[in-house]
Amino acid sequence: MAQKEPVEEKLEKVRHSMSHVMAEAVLQMFPQAQIAIGPAIDNGFYYDFELPRALSSEDLEEISQRMKTIIHENKEFKRIVVSRDEARKMFAGQVYKLELIDAIPENEEVSLYNQGGFTDLCRGPHVASTKDLNAESFKLLNTAGAYWRGKETNPMLTRIYATAWTNPKDLRLYLQKLEEIEKRDHRKLGKELDLFSFHEEAGPGLVYWHPRGARIRLAIENFWRDQHYANGYEMVQTPHVGKSWLWETSGHLDFYKASMYSPMEMDKADYYAKPMNCPFHIMIYQNTKHSYRELPFRWAELGTVYRYEKAGSLHGLLRVRGFTQDDAHIFCTPDQMESEIREVLRFSLFMLHSFGFEDISAYLSTRPQESVGDTDRWDAATESLRKAIIEQGLSYSVDEGGGAFYGPKIDLKIKDAIGREWQLSTIQFDFNLPDRFGMTFVDSDGVEKRPYMIHRALLGSIERFFGVLLEHYAGAFPPWLAPEQVCVIPVSEVFNSYSGEVFTALKQAGLRVYMDDGADRMNAKIRNAQNMKVPYMLVLGDREAQGNVVSVRYRDGRQVNGIAVNEFIALVKDKVSKREAL
RNA sequence: GCCCUUGUAGCUCAGUUGGCAGAGCACCACCAUGGUAAGGUGGGGGUCAUCGGUUCAAAUCCGAUCGAGGGCUCCA
Predict the structure, then answer these.
(1) Which of A118, A120, A152, A239 is the most exposed place for a label (fewest CB within 10 A)?
(2) Any bridge partners for residue A412, and if so which?
């Protein structure tokens, strides 16, 4: 007990040991249960079982109680090394354990851990005794179906998820975080703030944007468009459907068909809703011959695509069947490739920073086993990605072999206001499509050569990005994004006319403003505006009308009285143009 | 797709052992004319997701379908 072990290792041991305790508890209740695996995971652990029946929340309570009893028995975790045959004998009847034993490499020893009433096949390590576990610092969270080894063709097991910590305080903090996550859930906020909806009768996974949601979305899109024009892009617009020729040529019908909507037949031809924009942008490129003098092309489009996502994986705005990519394709010469990548990455970071994301990390994915394109191009492309990351001073990790079959890529992940990571931007080379479509440009030496093609999406998709932003801000959008920036609230009907003047002035100044001249009392109006998270509320009565000023109630509770109307307009406009918070 | 959970008014939810479908908010009307987070009274609104079954009787029990939620990588 001399030196302190690192917290992470301690936690891992605690969680893993807890999972054994849970398995023991479950076996007490269901002696005939098949036990599978039970690792430590982020924030806790799980264990997979094959059980005679489904578990109820009362069952979880009972398992939890039994675990506490086991922990209080102060049982030692004993490591035992056995031969394969002995192990097989001990786990006779436990089909999953037998499979695991067979999977252990010949040169590794087979170890077991025993804590009294329960022995599990396990590499370890564990805490020394259940004495080192705290019976008040874990909580069984939920059950879920999970395929044995994650494969759809394998049997479905029952997984029990739990969170576990070394002390009750950490548990409490984590449970509070879960509550915070629930409060920020974009599906909940989307409903409360009247931003968007889904309609099962009209098709799951398809988003309906309400006026308030559309306001925000358009603020995002307008900013996006302006910045693309300012950063050397051109906009293109392409159709939503394309004939099978296009998808045969692109290869999507070979490799991507399962994710595509079924074809529509027209004039004896099959048309497919587009799952990607790239083939369309290539058609524009192919419209004429191109010289090296014209390149690079940077063509951007907020292109709405449709993909068949499995019913069970749909999730609010984060996984939908119809979504709008903030897509662009860059076609350039080999000479230009490096500077283009550098520029794309810089631009990506600028965009993410603009939306309030400061903590960004990069993931570089390199060539996988199965891939197309020649090695020189892969190497050059991968190096240019790496150089760009280093130049930007980003922390990054490399996913060796994690690239798509058609090219290496950089993914950018951001951390949101409560520390969760989300993958947004992706920058990918494509060595496949230019070949398939036979794209060329005429170089300075008169020879036709293959251009480099780069796909990139900075926000990912507008829908998903919107969901992430909504959770990041917990619905309290900064003024530049807020659907309504200002709510004008007359103290009583008597002041409707002065309020109307102020409203008109703000409206003419280009602010997003509305006046609540309904029959509610002022208090109720403030409450409503507050619940809709409107950044600024102007409460107008006699005092304001007399002085031709406004009194400002900020969303965060601050209050500033007696500001001239023009001064207030300037203040909001300043916040908006700087994209600042309140 | 698969496992578990789930579906009652626009929203959030009650609904005991099967016995005439409820509340709050929202909406509409009337009263109240108000100074920083819900003023009062009254009213309208539901084929209890859909289809089928059991029963004298089904929101409630059973089955199917559809939707929603939690999951299905983290390698004993």
Answers:
(1) A152
(2) A362
Contacts of A285 (CB under 8 A, 6+ apart): A297, A331, A439
- What are the residue numbers of the active site of A? 278, 307, 325, 327, 329, 409, 455
Which amino acid, residue A415? Answer: K
pLDDT in tens, A444-478: 999 999 999 999 999 999 999 999 999 999 999 99
- Is A363 in contact with A396 (CB distance < 8 Å)? yes
Q: Which helix (H) or strand (E) holds A58?
A: helix A57-72
Question: Which residues touch A270 (CB under 8 Å, ≥6 apart)?
Answer: A243, A244, A263, A264
For residue A36, give the nucleotide whose C1' atom is nearest its CA.
Answer: B76
Nearest nucleotide by C1' position to the A45 CA atom: B74
Nearest one of A559, A564, A507 to A537, comparing CA atoms: A559
Per-residue pLDDT tens digits for A355-407: 999 999 999 999 998 889 989 999 999 999 999 999 999 999 998 888 889 99
Alpha-carbon gap, residue A103 to A36, rounded angstroms:
13
Query: Please, which positions of strand B sit below 7 A from a protein CB?
Result: 1-5, 11-12, 26, 30-39, 66-76
- Which two three-digit tokens encode residue A122? 């396990």
pLDDT for position A1: 40
| Preceding omega of A125 cis (within 30 degrees of 0) | yes
Å from A553 (CA) to B34 (C1')?
A: 18
Written as six digits, the tokens of A63 are: 């398992």
> Which domains are seen in chain A, by residue range?
7-183 (3.30.980.10), 206-362+422-472 (3.30.930.10), 486-577 (3.40.50.800)
The SS3 assignment for A183 reads: helix
Cα(A524)–Cα(A516) distance, rounded to whole angstroms? 10
Q: Which residues contact A31 (CB under 8 A, 6 or more apart)?
A: none
Establish how many alpha carbons lie within 13 A of residue A520's alpha carbon, considering only the half-sphere containing its beta carbon. 14
Q: What is the pLDDT, as a whole number, of residue A5?
A: 63
pLDDT higher than 60, residue A4: no
